[in-house]
Each structure stands twice: as structure tokens, then as C-alpha cells.
Specification:
single chain, alpha+beta, two-stranded antiparallel sheet, binds zinc ion
């Protein structure tokens, strides 16, 4: 049996004969860690999106605290999007 399965949408992708697109392994020299943030999706009275965003951070659980802070200031803003910036790399060659 193999180890843990990759998160949905993070499995290596092969669309060419000589390259494979993979999530960049962490930690590795020069590798930017994943960054997590949230954006408010609530619509203002003029139907424009609030768009307020948290600062990006490397801890996905800590990032989830921002919507609560935003909700305290804007009780009617209850819709959010999680934004994950995951570094990927194009590897020459493919795994057998
Ligand atoms: Zn908002």
C-alpha cells in the first residue's frame, strides 16, 4: 500500500512526452511554501464584491481565523473564498 493520497487537484499531470507538472515538494531549497488567504465574497449594496482579503500565511488553520475577524466588523459578510497559492514545477522527464 502506498502512503497518503495527494490532495484533490494536486496529482502530477503529464500532458507531454518529456515533462511532468507536479506540486513542488516542501521543503526544498528555493521553494516558496504554500500560502493561504481568504477573500470576502459578500456583495455590497451596489452589487460589487467586498473583496477584502487576509494577509497570506503558511498555516492554513491560522488563515481560517480571518473570516471571523472580518465577520465581527461586517456581520452581513458571510461568504468567503479560500485562496491557496501552491508552487508547482515542470519536471523534465516523467516517472515510470
Ligand atoms: Zn467583506
Amino acid at each position: 500500500m502506498t502512503g497518503a493520497q495527494p490532495l484533490p487537484g494536486t496529482a502530477p499531470l503529464v500532458l507531454s512526452a518529456d515533462h511532468e507538472l507536479r506540486p513542488r515538494p516542501e521543503p526544498s531549497p528555493g521553494c516558496t511554501p504554500c500560502a493561504y488567504r481568504f477573500r470576502c465574497l459578500a456583495l455590497d449594496d451596489d452589487d460589487t464584491e467586498c473583496g477584502a482579503e487576509s494577509e497570506p500565511g503558511t498555516d492554513p488553520v491560522r488563515a481560517q481565523t480571518w473570516p471571523f475577524e472580518h465577520l465581527r466588523a461586517h456581520p452581513e459578510h458571510t461568504g468567503f473564498a479560500e485562496i491557496v497559492e501552491r508552487p508547482w514545477v515542470m519536471w523534465r522527464g516523467t516517472r515510470a
